[in-house]
Structure formats: C-alpha cells, structure tokens
Amino acid sequence: MFRATAAFLMGFMCFAGAAWAQASVPYTADPATLEGARREGKLVFYTTWIVDQLAQPMFSEFEKRFPGVKVEYVRGDSNQNLMRLLTEKRANATQGDVWSLSAGIGELHKAGGVARLDLPSAKEIPDQFKDQDGLWIATYTNVHAPAYNTDLVAAKDVPRTYEDLLDPKWKGKLVWKRGDLTGSTGFIANALLTFGEEKGVEYLKRLAGQNISFYGGSVRALMDNVIAGEYPLGLQMTNVHAALSAANGAPVQWLPISPVAMSATSIGISADAKHPNAARLFVDFVISRAGQTVMAENGYLPVHPGVPAKIPSLKPEQGGFTFNVIRPDYIDANQAKWAAIEKEIFK
Amino acid sequence: MSSSTPTHPALAPRQGAGVLFRRLAQVVTPGKLLLVLCAAITIWLAFVPLAALLYTAFAEDTPFGPGAFTLQNFADVLTDRHLPELFATSFIFAAGTAAVTLALGSLVAWVVERTDAPGRSFFHVCALMSFALPGLLTTMAWILIFSPNIGWLNGELKQWFGLTKSPVNIYSMGGMIWTLSSHYFPLVYLLMGPALRVLDTRMEEAAVMAGANSAQMTVRVSLPLLRPAILSTILLLFIRGIESFEVPRLLGLPSRIFVLTTQIQSETSGSPPQFGLASAHGVMLLLICILGVYFYRRATKNAEAFATITGKGYRPTLIQLGRWRWPVFAAVLLMFVMTLGLPLFTLVWQSFFRNVTLPSLSALGSMSLASYDTILHYPIFLGAVKNSVMLGAMAATIVVLFTFMMAWVAHRSAKSYGWVLDALAFTPIAIPSVIMGASILFAYLIIPIPVYNTVWILLIAYVTMNLPYGMRFLSSGLAQIHKELEEAAQMSGAGLFRTFGRVLLPLLSPVLLAAWLYIFVLAVRELSASIFLSGPGTHVLGTISLTMWEEGGSFGAICALGVVQIIPLTVIVMAMRWLEQKIGDR
Q: Which of A76-80, B109-113, B415-419 has the lowest mean pLDDT?
C-alpha cells in the first residue's frame, strides 16, 4: 500500500514537475541564427510527426517563442519523405529545409542532400542518439513491444518471454504490420540482434508456424484494432500508444518482453536548404530542454536525459526492461537482409 | 484553330485569302487539327508516368533512384513461385467484382431509367452516395459489421440463430468481392443509366409487335443494342477491380490473400522500397488492361449498329410496372439497405463513440459529438476541403471536355488510328499511383514550369489519372449517337464547333454529367498520388484522411470524417440531378 502510494506520488511529482517545467524552461537562441531566421521568415518541414499529437503543439510553441518565423509542413511517412527529398535533390530544386526520417538518411547523404549539424543544444544529447558526423539527431525514441487486449487475454496466459509466443495457444491470434520497421521488419531485426543470426532465423521460422495475420494500416490503427478486440495480441507495437489508450480506459496493456526494440525518429537539415537559419533555429529548439519538454508533455519519449517521460515506466531505465537500439545507420546497412528473410520465411 | 475554319470545301473563303491558304484549309481540317492536338496532349500526359514506369521497371534499384539497365526485375517477377497464385487471386477478385457489380448496378439503372417505379430520384442520390463514401471508410464499416470477432451483425446473427461461430467472415475472397461491389455498383449505374435512357424503345416495341415476349425482346434486341455500354462497363469494372487497393489491403492481408496491387504496395512501401519490382508488376497490370481495351474494341467494331440516337425523332417511354411498382421499389430499397444502409448506419453510429461500440439501446446514453469537434477543429481541415472541391471540379470539367474531343476523334474523324488514342488514354489506369505521383513530381521539378508545391501539379495528376474514365464514358456515349446527326448539321453549314455545341454536347449531356460526377468524386477522394504532390499549404482531403487514420486513437473521429465528407458530396450530387432533370425537360 505504502509502495503504491509512493509510486503514485512519484509519478505525480514527475507529472507536475514536467508541467511546471514547460511554463518556464528557458531557451536562448544563438543571436546570429535568430536574426537570419527572422530574415528568412519561415522554414519547410517534411515530417513524419503525427499532426495533432506532436507537430501542432511543437510548431505553435516554436512560433510563439519566435514570432515572425513560421513552420510550413508536409506530413508523410519516412519513405514518402525520403522520395520527395531525393527527387528534389536530383532535380536540383530542394524545397524541404528540415526533415524527419526513420530510415534512408544514408541514401540521402550519398546523394549529397544532408547538411552537417553543429548545434549548441546537441551537446546535451547522449551519443547513442546522434550521428558522430552530425548528419542526424534523434528527437524522440520509440519502444516497440507486444501489446494485448486485457479483455481477451487472461492474466495467466500473458506471454512473458519470446519463447512464450511460440505456444500453440497463440496460433492464429497474433498480428503485425507487414513490411515495416514498426512491424514485421522491426521484429525480425530485433530477433536477429537478440538471438544472433542463426538462432534468430530458427526462432522466426518457428514463429511463422503461428500463422501471424498481416495488417495493412499504421501501427496506431492496428493498436485500435487490438483494443476493439479484432486481434488478441499485436507484435511490435508502440508502447506509448498502448499507455495513452489505457489511460483513456481502453482494455490494452503493453508487454516489456526484454530486450525490446528501440528506435529513434531523427531530424536533420537539407544541404541546399533555402532557409538555413530558420531550419537551424527550429532543430536546435526541438532537441533543447525546452523542445524536449513539449515532446514529453505530449506523451512522447524524449531523448534529452534531463527531461523525464510523462509516464516514466515507458522508458527502459524507469520501466526495468532492456533494449536493442536500432539506429538509422544500422537500418540502412541491414534492411535489405531483413526484407529478404521476411520474404523467405513469412511469404 | 478557330470555329470559323471551314469543314466543307464549298464553305471555304472565296476571296481575301490566297490560293495557298485555300489549299491549306482543304487539307488541314479542324478534325485533323483536333486529332493532332488531342494526340499531343494525351501523349504528354500519359508519357510522363509511362516513361517513369518503364524506366524503373527496366532499371536496377539503387539508393539514388533507377540505375543501370536490367531485366532482373522481370526475371524476379516471372520466376516468383507465388506468381500464378497472385494472378489467379487478382483475376477472381476482379471478375467476381465485375459480375456482382454488374448485376446490382444494372438493376438500379433499369429501374431508375426505364420504369415508373416510385422513389427513382431517391435511388439516384443513394447510388451516388455509396460511391462517394471513401473506400477506406466503407471497408472499415464492413469490418465493423461482418468481422468474425467484432462485427455487430455477426453478433446479432449468432444470437438470433443460436450459432456458436460467426456466420460471415469479411476477411475472405467473398467478403472482398462483396465489399468492393457494394461500393462500385453505382459506377454501373452511371455508365448504363445514360445508355438506357437514350435506348430507342421503338426497336423494342417493334420486337414485341413481331411477336417476341419480353424475355426474347431483352435478349435479342435490348441487350445487343446495349452491347457497347455493357462491355465498356465490364471492362471498366474489371480494371477497377484489378487496380483497387483499399479493400485487398484491409480485408485480404489479414487472411494473407494477395493481389497485384497489395503486392505493388508492399514493394513500394517496404524497407527498402523496391520500385523496380513494383514497376515490373505495374507493367503486368498495364498489359492486362491493354488486352482488355483490345477485346473491347473488337467487340464493338461496327459501332454504327449500336447507334440508337438517329436523326429520327425519339422519346424513350417508361415501362409501366402496374401492380409491380411497389414490389420493385421494395426490392431496390432492400438492396440499398444492404449495400449502403448498413455501412452508412455503422459509420454514423460509430462516429458518436470513441471506441468500437456495438449498436444497442443501452449505448445511446453515452453518445457524444466529440468526434465532430475533433474533425472541425482539426488544423488545415477546412483548407483541405476547399482545395479538394476546387480541384475536383476543375479536373472533372477539363477531363470531360477533353475526352469528349478525344472520343470524337477516335470514333469519328480518325477511326483507323482511334485505338491508339484509346489505348494511350488508358495507360494511366495501370500505373501504380505511387509511381504516378513520383514521376509527375520529378517531371515538373526538372521542367521549368513552376507548378511544384502548388495546386496545379495536383490538377495535372488528377486530370492524367482520370483520362481513362472520361474516355470510357464518352466513347460508349458517342457510340450511341449516329453520325448522321452531325452530318446533317454540317450539311446545313454548321462548323465543327457549332456541331459540337448545338448537336453533340446537348445529346451527350447525360453522359457528360455522369462522367463529371464520377471524376469529381474520384478526384476529391484521391490519395496515393496526392501524398507526393500536395505541398505545404496545398493539403487535400485524401491526404488528411490518411493522416488522421494513421494517427488513429479514435474510431469515432475517422467515421465522423467520413460522415462530414458525404454531406457536401450529397449536396453536389443532388444539385447535379436537378440540373440533369432540367436539361431532360427542355
């Protein structure tokens, strides 16, 4: 009882602390950058960020702090943004100043489309969340783990290990998003990292015997289907989604089966950005303590070590689970292999 | 090119212009000029995506786009052990959809156009509404109705009949065919309706006079007369089925039923994307479509035999159903309840709840308007509605007028080369919209026409993508009009454009309106190409619907988005019906 109360109080304090922090987290822009940004007046952001959950709150906070610098955006998934950027680069007509991508940064860099970042706020971000050459920097992390419907799965049946997922009782009851890092591809990557190449493939072959259903929409929409009871358990789901829905009373729980896969959504600036100062100002703000606080307030997992998550147990340190980081450069180097394994084993 | 350019040598200017001009005017008729112009525009519109498709299909996939020449993509596609299965499922799905859709749609078309059954205007609006519902949302609605786990009607059926297992599984080939058919049958109505309306009943009457009963009359007279329309419809349905994407994505994938489009989609959206393979599959799709056009043209070769609008006066009369009026009404009503009522009710019901909620009296208390609040306060929503409606109207107008000229050239002034135009106009249908979007993007980035990141690039895409549909509508419409009417106009001294304006356009107005509506709705709903082409400030409904769906978190908000989209479309459909009747009365 006491422990529960203490945990609640701790949670509440973090919560209140974050809320209090947002109102007053100071951010001082580099004067030259700021002046340049004001002159440029705007920046164009090709983003993967969910519009009402993250993009809008972040943009309005930014525009409030820097009147006269507007954020214009186009939202697409990582592949779409990459295709736009590569096409613009090839035609020598770059329009996107800032981008967020989860894969393909290496390709864009080889095409000469990535500017090297040298941002004051980057110093505060741990090395594992940024590129050593300054091509990208993470803005928030995603924890990919299974999630299940609590009405459909009894407490005693809840899987605790990867081995548990092979139990015959799960046959025909599992689902994942197909061909995506937030889905089958990401699960395969994590299995290979966890078990090693050979044993990993062996595990995946046994898992394929469970006849996993494919889902064609986003991982968030899949979460809604798990909540609705269409599928009892989704593999490679995003833990923030489960936690936010559960907080709204949805019958869903995520499973920290260690090691979980952890990926980062990265941000960077185009080499030929038309609004370089505004772009710099924006990116620096996003990764600063002030920007990361906006991130946390809206339920995302900040990369800034000084900013706690809104629900602390979603991060490995507080949640007590281990993880494999799947970095953008690692994805670029291995994704063809993962896709081949997926095609071979799962059709 | 002006309307005063003479068509007939006798009408050539007798003085004021030199001999040379007279000669030139004799050789360069407006018809030929039109042919060249249409061909040039079509070639350009079709060339951009087609070139991109072929280029990527025959090139290695590299991180920087297409690389060196290779046949590997085709080798990979053709040696894939899943290929026969892929073709078989695609074919069954498309053919099944065409059959069910044709049956449902012709019934509605016949009742609305040829009988005196009550409620015909109501059915007309219903038919267009089922088509106006975004495909993503109808499919979702059918899942909420007939999913074996969460479908509410499945639950009810289990209770009524004391079953232990759900009687219907929407995640099956049958479920896919039904879902797409319930969505597409208005297309049959749109294509067959105008044809039925202008079908000269005197031919049918003659058959009856000659002693035929109504079955014989239908088989020997009405159906053969309608052959271009029916074949056109089947062709279009089959191709729509082959290239439809949302239904196989949401209903096929969970049961691991793959068709060509889901294959292409998983190739273009995978990590890493395989555009070469996707394009090679796209080329397969294109070949199937070209084969379809070829058979269609063969089957309707002697087009004049189908011309039922001739110089002799006609006035189609309605079939008096007598005591069958109400039973027919009830049958059609039941069909609409099944195809439109169920999903629409489900969407509207669900739009009042955040999480999936089965329809029941006890749930009435917890209804809320929160979803609508979310939608209307969603940033950029109103701007997107404005952009979409404006683009839809412009694209529809341009395509209708342009394909009218093309169909005329293909069927009248240059019949021997006409199939080339027909085939050209058809190519956009087979090109995966992702490749369409990306190729248009690239083309207009390197060409010094400043349309990138403006609404105009979207307009170019919508016009290109809808050419095939406009062409189908106008070709089959034109086939019904005997050319003696134009000849009469020209003999009386009317120039080509006067003939168009005073004779052909009025006679074709039902077809033009149907085509306009169809294209308008498709353009408003367009999604896959818009993703690449809508820039900051040019958001459209399709892209924000997708974004909202992906954002998820609330079934209610997505359903509300569907309901909100239907309202303006219904108003427009009703306005068009009113206009149509006004023209009809004239």
A: B415-419
CA-nearest residue to A213 within chain B is B254
Distance CA B274, CA B268 (A): 6
Residues A153, A134 within the same domain: no
Residues A82 and A172 in one domain: no
Nearest CB among A75, A178, A331 relative to B266 is that of A178
Residues 217-256, chain A: which have Cβ within 8 Å of B? 217-218, 220-221, 223-224, 227-231, 241, 244-245, 248, 250
Task: Answer whether residue A315 is part of any domain.
Answer: no
Residue A231 lies in a domain: yes
Do A302 and A184 share a domain, yes or no?
no
All domains of chain B in start order, with CATH: 9-356+367-585 (1.10.3720.10)
Asked whether residue A182 is assigned to any structural domain, the reply reads yes
In A, minimum Cα distance to B444 occurs at A91
Q: What is the mean pLDDT of residues A32-52?
A: 92
Could you tell me the two tokens for A237?
């789901």
Do residue A128 and residue A233 come from a single domain?
Answer: no
φ/ψ (deg, to 5) at A326: -110, 95
- Distance between CA B379 and CA A90 in Å, rounded? 32
Give the closest of B268, B355, B553 to A228, CB-based: B355
Q: What is the pLDDT of residue B407?
A: 86
Res A8 pLDDT > 80: no
Report whether B456 contacts B534 (CB < 8 A): no
- By C-alpha distance, the chain B residue nearest A91 is B446
Where residue A238 sits, what CATH number does that domain have? 3.40.190.10
Which pLDDT value is given to residue A277? 97
**pTM for this model (two decimals):** 0.78
Task: Give residue B555's pLDDT band: very low, low, confident or very high (50, 70, 90).
Answer: confident
What are the residues facing A141 on neighbouring strands? A264, A301
pLDDT score for B232:
78
Long-range CB pairs of B212-220, under 8 A, 24+ apart, other chains included: none
pLDDT at position B583, please? 64
Question: Which CA distances in Å does B407 have to B196, B398, B477?
Answer: 20, 14, 9
pLDDT grade, residue B349 (50/70/90)? Answer: very high
- Judge if A115 and A157 occupy the same domain: no
Query: Does residue A221 sit in the same domain as residue A85?
Result: no
SS3 content of chain B, % helix, strand, coil (to 5): 75, 0, 25
Number of domains in chain A: 2
Residue window 276-315, chain A: list those with CB within 8 Å of chain B.
none
> Which among B146, B110, B573, B581 is positioned nearest to B335, based on CA atoms?
B110
Predicted pLDDT of residue A258? 92
Asked whether the beta carbons of A101 and A268 are under 8 A apart, the reply is yes
Provide the residue type at A137 as one letter.
I
For residue A233, give its domain range.
142-262+320-346
